[in-house]
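Feature request disguised as a bug report, sorry. It would help if multi-protein outputs had a clear separator. Right now it looks like this:
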Amino acid sequence: MEEKILGIVMVAGDNRVVGLQFFEEQQGLVNELVLMGAPIYFVVIAFPCTVVAIALAILHIYRHLLNYTEPTYQRYIVRIIFMVPVYALMSFLSLILRDSSIYFNSIREVYEAWVIYNFLSLCLAWVGGPGAVVLSLSGRNLKPAWCLMTCCFPPLPLDGRFIRRCKQGCLQFVILKPILVAVTFVLYAKGKYEDGNFSANQAYLYLTIIYTFSYSLALYALALFYVACRDLLKPFNPVPKFIIIKSVVFLTYWQVGFCYFCASLYVFVCSLPPSPMNTSHRPT
């Protein structure tokens, strides 16, 4: 029987390439999930996109620094804009240097956490700081709502404790993410970590669960803060900014996870023994 090869290539959100190769041999079906190098046309497309993204971001940062008249706001804005060069460069390097992609991706992910906290700090600066927020919201309560998952709780008083909890919800992700990165490096060096491997014997599954919970908590804290302060933030129109940051950071992460999950699921399905009906029609 002739050897058959079927290749499937999936490109994740951070430009990592996952390849699935299936080899059908005389003794049975052998499925193997492998990392493949990026084809040249991926690099040809990614390089100019990376250059343009970095150039536009640097130009934007330069104009902010040239007109640095509102340092209270602009220092946070510059840090958020700098996310674009970090994302673009780290993604491109992980595409062309796949053996070192775990290090480039870790740098990007640590900066993600920093951006989340800086966005909350920017919102606080817009409304005059934590003290001004407490005075403005004095006597108000956050009503229970199913969309905020607070329908089973009494009204939350919008006081200093509430603002502090929102900051802590974001800050825990900033602190936890570098720790997870360090743990990932140690486990990777010991052969206990592999991207996309959801096996119980690998640490990827457990780190992904911790990361998802921490990240969701940070975004939830941001959402609670916005709902509580939306009247104060209305002149600054923060909703589009929040959606863009949330989509860039959160959706790219879930896109990678979804691609890895689909790849693992496809390998699992193909590893199942063929039914007698399918075997009878297999070409010889």
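(second protein starts here, but nothing in the output says so)
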Amino acid sequence: MWLLDVRVLLDREKNIQEVDAEIKVLKQLDDEGASYAILSHRWGTEVDYGEMTGLAVMEARKRSEVTKRDGYQKIISSCEQAEKDGYSWLWIDTCCINKDSSAELSEAINTMYRWYRNAQRCYVYLSDVDESTFPTEQDFSKFGKSNGWPVWFSRGWTLQELIAPKEVEFFNKNWVSIGTKQELTSTLEEITRIPSKVLRDGQVLSTEPWRRPCIAQVMLWAADRTTTQVEDRAYSLLGLFDVNMLMLYGEGSKAFQRLQLEIIRVSSDHSIFPWNPKGQLARRGGVLADDPSCFRGCHDIERVYRFGDTLGAYMRQV
């Protein structure tokens, strides 16, 4: 994975016109061995991999335009916070993936859950929160387009970014810390419908089948979330189900059907089938759902375990 060298980037920022263009702000490291922080945020006017690596050699006018973007200032603030916390490396999805390479993009999407899980700390930047405290009640006057909560909670990709890391810290738009995942567990459970045991330990999703939430429950958490690309409604869930897929942007809702087939291939959990449980008429054909919203009514579905399921899982451990 590409990681930002926090110290090098902050030094470059002090006087970018005099920086040696040969100095690299991004370095490839192994997520299993590196100690790094990671950012979770809502995209706006961002800075990509090519702009971040080529900033020092840009024409002055273009460089000025890039550094004035909200996305660039977000990168700098994230690095400053990482340095305060003692981290030398930082990962941000906007500039740490070379999206011109389809192979690199596919690898990143398939391993992103692991990258968030292996991060020492995840910074969640809530750009629409002005107050110095975390919002604990729905406020439709401020967050009317995202069900009364900060828009970060309505996005598809941020579901795994909340669950995977052990240490999560929330910041308001001025980069003031407003709480951690551990401190805010009860409020986060109310907002997201994710059980507190999962919020406290995302590893529960990779434990024995009878201990983890059923497939329908996990789909429910994603039911009301949105993504810019239709395909990302499926791709953003890969890590939560521990499956891998090829990225085929342009396939539309077929991506979610492929996701379900991959899940069925590795799981005997039949709760993936009783979607749309209220008996509403669905589109013709097939037993697979069109998208996660089909699981919106699956609050009470639980998996019934057969003795063979638990015995088989036990025997694999001994």
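Even a blank line would do. Unrelated, but nice: The chain is about 35% helix and 10% strand.
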